[in-house]
User: Fold this.
Amino acid sequence: MLNINSNVPQKNDVRIRELIEEKRQSRNFKGIVEKLIPSFLLVIATLSILTTAGIVYTLLSETVQFFKRVPFLDFFTGTALKPLSQTPEFGILPLLMGTITSSLIAMVVAGPIGLMAAIYLSQYASERVRKVFKPLLEILAGIPTIVYGFFAFTFVTPLLRTLIPGLEATNILSPGIVMGVMIIPMIASLSEDAMSSVPSSIREGALALGSTKLEVTKKVIIPAALSGIIASFVLGISRAIGETMIVTIASGSTKNFTFDITQSMQTMTAYIVEVTGGDAPAGSTVYYSLYAVAMTLFIFTLLMNIGARKISRKFREEY
Amino acid sequence: MTLLTERQQTPLRMVENKQWRKPVYETNGLNLWYGTSHALKNIDLSIHEKEVTAIIGPSGCGKSTYLKTLNRMVEMVPDVSISGNVTFKGNNILGKSMPVEMLRAKVGMVFQKPNPFPKSIYENVAFGPKIHGIRNKTVLDQIVQESLQKAALWDEVKDRLHKSAYGLSGGQQQRLCIARCLAIDPEVILMDEPTSALDPVSTHKVEELIHSIKNDVTIAIVTHNMQQAARISDRTAFFLNGEIIECDTTTAIFNHPADHLTDDYINGRFG
Assistant:
C-alpha cells in the first residue's frame, strides 16, 4: 500500500524531536540568509539617504554657480525679479512674498476649519457619522491638484470677483483659498487621529469631575494632542509652500513684490514651472536661478520642519 | 467567618447605630440594557450617607454598570437604555431636571486604572476646582495641599508639585486621582475597583485612605476582593447576573448571609 502520509506521525508515534532535528540540517543555509538580510536592508536604507544627498549636492553645486554670477545680497534683498529682461535682475523677494502670502491665506482657511472638523469628528460625532466622514475626507485629499487649480481659476476667481470689485483675473487670494480647501482634509484627518488617540480613560476622568464636553476638549484633549495637532499644521504649511499647480494656474506669473492679495503674485514653485517650461538655455543665469530658488525652497521647508519638531517636543504631554 | 479580621467584628454596634442614617442614593426598579442584553434587572438599593457601601459579585454581574449609573457615566456607552428611578438626595438623576455636570460635581469617581491627566501633579488636583470656576491662586494652592494631604500623598509629592503626574508610581497615581476627586469636595465618591491594578502595599494605603475620609464623604466601592469589602465597608450589596441578591450590613452579609448564593460566593465556591 502506498503510504503518502509516511511523514505524519501516528498517534502513538510522535517524533517532534526528530522532526526538529531533521529540519536543523537545512538551517545552515537559513543562517547565512539570516546574516545577510540586515546588510541588504542597510544598503536599501542607505540608498534613499544617498539619493537625497545627491539631490542636495546638485542643488548646492548649481546654486554656487548662480552666486558666482549674481551677488548673494542682491538675490536675497532684491525686490525685482526680471530674469529675461535686457538688464536682468534676480531678487527672490517677490517669490518669497508670493509663497508666504499664499501659504498664509491657505492656513487661515484650513487651520480653523480643519481643527474644528477634527474636534467634531473625534469628540461629538457618532461612530456612524465618523465612519462616513473619515473616508470622505481621505478621498478629498486624493483629488489631483491640477483639478483644484482649474477650480480656482474657473470657479472661485469669478465668484470672488463679484464680491471684490478690484480683484484681478489672476490673483493670489483665490489659489490661497483653494489651497486651504485642499489642506483641510489633511489637517482634519491628522488632528482627528491625534485627538482620538488620547486614551478615553483620561476623557472619562475629566467628565466624571463634572466638566462639559467642550471643557474636556479644550482643557484635556487638545493639550494632550497638541503635538499631533501642531504636526498636522506644519505638514499643512509644508504642503502649501510646496504646492505648485494651483498657484501656477490661478495666480499668473507677475513677479509682484506687494502686500496686496488681490493682485497676481508668483510663488517660488510657480517660477520654477515657468522657467523650466520656457526655454532657458542650460548654463545661463536664468537656468542657474532655478537652482537658487529651489535651494531656498528646500531650506525653507527644512527650517520649518526643524522648528515644528522643537515646538511639538516642547508642548508634548505624555500619556 | 474566617474572612473577617478582628477589626470588622468589633464595630457591630456602631454599624447598627448607623442604620438610621439617611440614604443619599435611592434606586427603585432600575433596569438597564446594553442594546438587547439586560445588564441590570429591577435593582432596588440605597446608599447611605457617610457609609462605605461595598458592591461585590462575580465579573459581568452588573456591579460596575450600577456604579456608573450613579453618575451617569454609563450613558457614554452607545446603545444603552435605562428605566426606573435613581434619586440623589431626593432628585431624580435620570430625568432631564438635573444637568449631568451638576451631578458629577457632587459625585466623584475613581476608576479601575489610575487615569491622571497628562499634566503636572498640581494641575491634576486643581483641574476640578478650576472647571467649576475657582480661579484664585491662593485658594487653589490651599485646595491642592489639603486634597493631597487627605489623600496621604502630600509628603511624597510636595517637592515636585509641578512635575508631570506620569512620574508617579501606579499607587501614587491612584491616590492622586482620589485627591483630584476630593478637590471638588464631593458628597459621594464612587470607586470602581480602585485597587485592582495596585500592589498590596499601595492597596493598603488606599484602604487606609478610604478609612480616613469616610467620616466626611459617602463612598460606594465596587470590589472583587472579598477581604477588602469586609475590611472597609459598612454595608455590602451582592450582585449576581444583573440582579441584587442581598444587601445588608457587612457584618451580617459576612457572618450570616440570608441567601445561600451569597454564602457560596463569599466563601469562594463560585465566581
